[in-house]
Design brief:
The protein is an alpha+beta fold and about 575 residues long. It is built from 13 helices and 25 strands. The radius of gyration is 24 Å and the shape is globular. It binds calcium ion (CA) (2 copies) and zinc ion. One calcium ion binds near residues 433 and 436.
């Protein structure tokens, strides 16, 4: 049965305070007021905070907002961050979040969007069992039972609220989170990834070996010894950092990604004399370690989940000589890509593609593709997706998806600078390009000059089509270029507006400010505009209002056309 759909409400953005005062003064509930479709709950000034704070309290008291996370700020330890999810008739409104920053119980900032006027039938026409048996009959994999399945309210791509089941579904290209209409069984939205935790392991078998990377460069590698052999399992750092070598068995890897098989100790990268010569194994493992070290040194963050949970990466998903024999989807997934999967295995995992054999180029660009594990910025980019999954959960489509991708590029570039600044890897030079050591020449994206690789450097020229989940990679450079300008300064090519940056010696300031905004202040459905507001708030929190840091960030967003 196809349930009649509601038509979209006209968007009317009433002024926050005016609308709130109607509610509070007349003591009406949000539903009985002639409500706008969405209420923007952005408050950072004392004048706005009092009413907005009371409104949030009202929503919490009436069960329309429920707390889903409280985190202590690692960079300003006196601050706390509450993350609320909107509920409607007991069902979570997917992505509708409000974040509230407090100090000693006093509210400092609030960000988010609240939908006051959801009209939707919350009884599903199709039971969950029917959906699951339909899915299981359509694929060779069974639906993993350990992944959460829930009924939610989802704003579909057309802006219509839809009652949908949220499920983790297996597929030939790995699992996806699907939202399936609870009335007609049609998939209304899908995206990759959530993230679960496990404890680390004790260590009495840790060893440090010596390895050679993809570029023939020498580096120390933290491994584990077992039965006289060595494995790429790092037990020296607080989380278990494990690098698995799938030895080209992509069919087994698909079963693992789809949670129909588990990785085991036999899958660790192996070496007989602790002189490691497999470049992708060495680089993937060492770069995951650098990423951990960076997060801890710069943000006092304990790993990807903040609790030193395991970090799992996979190399050699295919053999290069199988180039012509694998199916097309395997070719693009395991030769030409690297990805993070939050719902794969107990802790999520990153897979690094194998690249192309020597002599092969991408016909469109003439670029060669090396092992993806050979780019430290690629490794940290993928691992940063796990951080986003564990914090803001930025929804992987449209502007919030572009922010999700921008954060990964920002961490990717920052880890590269962090490592280069130690001087321990003289063969590595840091830059604002992502993937230049893998996709050659030129790399994948440029934060310094997005236009040079066909990405927008300004909001006015953003991609507005439906491909790439609404341009999540394409448009990411609008935000990551703002990050670049805030550090290095310079002139935006499209707007001609110049920015005075904080200078490369102060890059840590912008890195910390952006990290706080992206992981603590942003709701899951953030827009570029909220990214501007939250990064400015974060700068004020850390360095005070009117400081050069705030000015640099403010100018940078203006230069890229984000208001
Ligand atoms: Ca580089
Ligand atoms: Ca780079
Ligand atoms: Zn990404």
């Amino acid at each position: 049965m196809i349930f009649p759909r509601l038509t979209r409400q006209p968007i009317k953005l009433l002024k926050n305070v005016a609308f709130l005062s109607v509610i509070l003064v007349n003591n009406l509930s949000a539903q009985t007021v002639a409500a706008p479709e969405v209420i923007l709950l952005n408050a950072t000034q004392e004048s706005e905070l009092r009413l907005t704070d009371r409104f949030v309290d009202h929503l919490v008291r009436t069960n329309q907002l429920r707390i889903n996370k409280i985190v202590t700020d690692t960079l300003i330890p006196t601050r706390q961050h509450e993350r609320f999810s909107q509920y409607h008739q007991g069902l979570k409104v997917y992505g509708a979040e409000v974040t509230r920053q407090t100090e000693a119980g006093v509210t400092v900032s609030i960000f988010g969007r609240f939908y006051p006027d959801i009209k939707i039938e919350t009884t599903p026409s199709l039971p969950l069992d029917t959906i699951i048996s339909t899915i299981n009959s359509e694929t060779q994999w069974s639906l993993p039972e350990n992944k959460s399945q829930e009924l939610v309210i989802l704003k579909n791509p057309n802006g219509i609220f839809t009652l949908a089941y949220r499920l983790t579904v297996a597929s030939p290209v790995g699992p996806a989170i699907q939202f399936i209409d609870a009335h007609d069984g049609i998939t209304v939205h899908q995206y990759p990834g959530i993230h679960l935790n496990n404890d680390g392991l004790p260590c009495d078998t840790c060893r440090v070996g010596e390895g050679r990377g993809v570029k023939g460069d020498r580096k120390k590698i933290s491994v584990n010894t077992l039965g006289g052999r060595f494995q790429t399992l790092d037990l020296l750092r607080p989380p278990a950092i494990a690098t698995y070598d799938l030895k080209g068995d992509w069919e087994r890897l698909l079963n693992i990604l789809n949670n129909n098989e588990l990785l085991g100790p036999a899958d660790y990268g192996q070496d007989s004399d602790n002189h490691w010569t497999d470049g992708p194994i060495v680089d993937g493992h060492v770069s995951a370690g650098w990423t951990y070290d960076y997060l801890h040194a710069r943000f006092q963050r304990n790993g990807l989940d903040g609790q030193d949970g395991p970090i799992t990466t996979i190399v050699h998903p295919v053999n290069r000589e199988d180039l012509w024999s694998v199916p097309d989807h395997i070719f693009s997934l395991f030769f030409l890509n690297a990805f993070y999967c939050g719902v794969c295995g107990p802790d999520g995992m990153v897979v690094f593609g194998e690249g192309l054999p020597e002599g092969f180029v991408l016909t469109e660009t003439g670029q060669t593709i090396d092992f993806f594990a050979g780019g430290i910025d690629i490794v940290s980019h993928e691992l940063a997706h796990a951080i986003t999954d564990n914090t803001s959960g930025l929804i992987y489509q449209n502007e919030s998806g572009a922010l999700n991708e921008a954060f990964s590029d920002i961490i990717g570039v920052s880890v590269e600078f962090f490592m280069a600044d130690t001087g321990r890897h003289p063969e590595e030079t840091a830059d604002y390009v992502l993937g230049e050591d893998v996709v050659k020449p030129n790399g994948v994206r440029s934060l310094a000059d997005p236009l040079s690789l066909n990405n927008p450097d300004h909001y006015s020229i953003r991609y507005q089509g439906g491909a790439d989940y609404g341009g999540v990679h394409i448009n990411s450079t609008i935000a990551s270029h703002a990050f670049y300008l805030a550090i290095e300064g310079g002139t935006n090519k499209t707007s001609g507006i110049s920015v005075v940056g904080v200078g490369s010696h102060n890059r840590w300031q912008i890195e910390q400010v952006f990290y706080r905004a992206f992981t603590m202040l942003m709701p899951a459905n953030s827009t570029f505009s909220i990214a501007r507001k939250t990064t400015i708030q974060s700068a004020r929190d850390m360095f005070g209002a009117g400081h050069t840091v705030e000015r640099a960030i403010d100018e940078a967003w203006t230069a890229v056309g984000v208001k």
